[in-house]
Amino acid sequence: MSPPFAAAVFPQELLDRTIDELATTDRLGALQAESRDALIACSVASHSFRPRTIRHLFRRFNPANVGPLDEPDGWDKLAELLSKSPHIVRSVTTIVLQSIGGPQSASRAQATHVMSLFVRVRRVEIWGTALDHWTPTVTGIFADKTITHVLFNSVPFYSFQNFVSCGATCLPNAENLELKSLGMDYDIPSLALTSEFQADTTTLRLPALKTLSCSVSNMSRFFDGVADGTIEIPHLESLKLSYLSMQAACFGPLLQKAPLRALELKDVQFHDSPRTRLPPLSLRHLGTLHISYSYFKWLCESIPLGMPQLQTVTVRFSRPYQGTKPSVFKLFENLATTYLPGLEVFRLEDYSAKSKRTIAHDCPGLVARGILLWGVEKEVIGKARGGRR
Q1: Which of 2, 67, 301, 332 might form a disulfide with 280, Cβ 3.0–4.6 angstroms?
Q2: Checking DSSP bridges between strand 211-215 and strand 262-270, what pairing results, if any?
Q3: Above 90 in pLDDT, residue 99?
């Protein structure tokens, strides 16, 4: 099919949507190999495909993947190349900084100039000890940019502290902060600020932050800072925690200070609380709650304290539910009737068929109102599936 015929038959919006469907990414947001090959093929097949394919192919810029930048004129050559390719520069919306690929002292000015060319960047990913290699260039990277999403992956806590310290000036618009494997350097003694990147750490403030996601991280010092006021996130609306160990004494003040509207707890251990349980809390702004079943009793204890805005509750099972006496789900139904007038959805996920029958029997009122919904049913293997193993 010739390009003129393709453009004449199909509207550009449909072609763009087709290209978008080809641009599949992995869990970290990078293009999958098959998608990259398909997009490259499309880019040379028709002029109608080219703008959209370029937008996907070059949306992430990682200096570690660009030639020998450690050469004396490496960054100058890259700047010259980009100046001749404004369509590529306009496509970059994500910058990835890794430990490798950081500029040497002599080339930091050139590196800062290159980064300043990407005016449409909205997302930044920082991996490992990248800031040790990029500071003080980092402040120049984010100058005059509207960064709304920041990801830290396997970053020492002191690097995170350094970065957030400059956030008041270079990241005033960061709305989404994602922390993975952060702060696993808790026992490392050399946590002082780097000599090249001295910052005022009296108060770390993220004024626009609305969503905070943390997984497999040592968040003790972060939440300690929130509790004592040295870290301020005054407008936080959504908090997602998974596979963490932290102190309930610090977690509670965070929930009380922030106007949380959405909370997700998945395999979080509160090691300073009896039997690692979270004490009951009042969450008057909360509208959406997603928890593992291990926190369901905590939810029932907290509802009478005040969750008047709660509309959606999702409970995920990590093991088959055997039932309790008295039934905790019957208790929840009674509490919902009294304290949760706006409850619209009570969803269960990863349940077994037997659990479904038991819970439905315990919550006839929720079933009758159409509130009790069923997500993905956990597949049962072995004898429960006809004896196959």
Answers
A1: 301
A2: unpaired
A3: no
